[in-house]
Design brief:
By secondary structure, the chain is mostly helical. The protein is built from nine helices and no strands.
Amino acid sequence: YNEVLQNRKFPKLHSNLIEVWKIYEAWLHVLIVSEKIVPKNESEQKNFKVSRYANEVHTYFKDKSGLNISIMVSQIALLLIQKEHDTILDKMEAIAKYKDRYVNKEDNYRSYLFINMLLTIPKAYFKRSMIEEQADKYKKILETLPLDIANQSADIEILPYEDIWDLLLEYT
């Protein structure tokens, strides 16, 4: 990531490509603040702002079938780590509408299942045992449908949904 950003040609890339790297930055930040990875130096990722993130990826945030899912899920992960439950409730309403309009079983079944799992978090009052119980049926199906045979673009899952789910549960 750092090598790409430090490349002299990076600022000249098309804005869509720069936005993809902003999405990667968000996921790196999730992994750093959840202590899953340790940055080489402490100055890395300190300036990341969740509120600014959606504005920096405006092209893909408008995308209704692809990386928008990764953007929304990374926002939820960051907010959950920060215990911003009220903000999560607002975002979950938008995610539920998004799922109903744009995510279907035929084209993005893994995303459909994962979003249903995600929506259990506020319904279960952010209580891990209740979340696991309510999301179990979706999780079992998700586990039987590996990404390599799923009928969906691998680009949507920057991190596998199973790994994201385990990380999210740590913060409930």
